[in-house]
Amino acid sequence: MPGHPNSGAHAADIEVAADLTLDLGPSDITVAALSLDGTAAGTDITIASGGSRLILQNNDNNQFFDWNTSDTEFTMTYEGANLGRVVMESHGVAGETNTISAPVRFRNNGFHEGIDVYGTRSLTLAGPIDIDGADVTAPNLGPSARLRSYLPQGEKVLITGNINLTDAVDGVNGRLLQLNDYYTSNTLSQDSVPPRGMIEVTGVISGLGTLWANWSWDVDGADDNTKDYLHDPAPVPIATKSTMPTVILRGNNTFSGDMLIGRGNLVVGHNNALGTDTVTQRGPAGNSKEVGYNLISDADDR
Question: Which pLDDT belongs to residue 77?
């Protein structure tokens, strides 16, 4: 339908007590929210496609006009209020699986927006993933494709499909994908809850873009910000591995942009997991704060 979804209320809610394979049909389907819930043990829910895409997009604007300062960049991103974010929920009882085998396009790329995954069960993205319209030139202020997992310990977002970081529409520009990114800002927004879930990527990440893993912050305008932003993730650096976000990269990745490592657990599951270009620590300029990330290899000889 033209002009939809234009609100976070435009959602697809799938709750079944028996196995279900739902084919998207011949045309792309766009949703701002998606809930998958198998209510009987062993239920398998699959969203499939013969070639059409599942597009994740919410046209709600997460910015509003601050009458006191006339600042149109004042941003609300309080978790639980779906302000411009796509929300995916994965629920079910023991033995239930939720899988999206259809191609997926990330088109929710505004500042502080992205795609948040909540629920009680793991979610598998088995189809190819691409990005439409994210801007790699300003990773903090400009748009970027974000995927965050708020799933509980023991569950995960599993991506077995390949990810292309070259813009899906223009085919020329590299795009930025942020996995489990989170920050607060003393002048713009305050996310109430950082993602502490796990995202595991076994597919190959290719293309011209940049990959960013886990929490970050920027102090004193280190990223050419025009204001003195403070990106200050919680908890403090003494956090244990289980209370920090985890990104696992197991693919023979060929993306040619930077690999940016933020605060959390980054598991290197392949010799080429970090791509082909520079690996960079994300954090403040100087030594004003401890970054606090764990770079972990899953093999003794790596």
Answer: 43
